[in-house]
Amino acid sequence: MICVDMNCVERTLLSAKTGKSDQKLATVQAWLAAAQADILFEATSLNVQTGQPAVDHIRAALHHGAHAITANKGPIVHAYRELRDLAAARGKRFLFESTVMDGVPIFSLFDQLPAIHLQGFHGILNSTTNVILTEMESGLSFDESLKKAQALGIAETDATHDIDGWDAAVKTAALVTVLMDIPIKLEEINREGIRGLSAEAVRAEKKEGRPYKLVCRANKTGKGITASVRPEQIPLTDPMSQIAGTSSYIYFETDIFPGLAITEENPGLYATAYGMLADFVKAVSK
Length: 286
Description:
The chain is of the alpha/beta class. It contains 10 helices and 12 strands. The strands form 3 sheets. It has a 6-stranded mixed β-sheet with strand order 8-10-9-7-11-12. The chain has a 4-stranded parallel β-sheet with strand order 1-4-5-6, sandwiched between helices. A two-stranded antiparallel sheet has the order 2-3. The longest helix has 17 residues.
């Protein structure tokens, strides 16, 4: 059986094997056991501070002997090595392709590039702020642009994590932690959101050919990693200047390939679900 976890402790369990539908279970562990789950899909909301309850859900699934697939970035930042090692010890998969750039194969790309060493990356990874900046360039106020992003289903009712750069910082930390194999804490990332940008300034810089974008950066140095998330004025000669709406972009710098870029053009809301589907296929194919 496949279990789908949507923060569902205390939710009703429907058993495909017994046909019964009114079991009330007190814990994720009890739910996994009753369902005889082979895979758990974890899709709770991001907890920036602790990664919970997603970390506990994934840990429980792996201890149970199920593959764990998540679209939640928190566990990658707060417990990646523990969960990675636990999955390996249990002979299961811990997969998370939907956490950055929806279902684009950012993490699995490097599975196909053995012996490559990632030196750094930069990109635009938060759709909400990108939509807001695009709409502000078109003449809307900050608040009007946010409401449009919410109407599109891109921004949540409380878009604080996006506006203040937390979502982008968590994605940056996830990429550093997994692809560079260097754990980084969120407080080590120089973070600034777009809240302080006025619509007038955004339009003025767009007119001058230097549009504002919320840019994620990370680079390996002799002392470790330097990382930042902040609004930057991007010259029109830089591909990032053309990233608008819900599109995303990332540029990797490696020891073999000096520049390797991926652009995701205006994905639909189904893209994240596709990433989880792709992880599911990967998990059951091996």
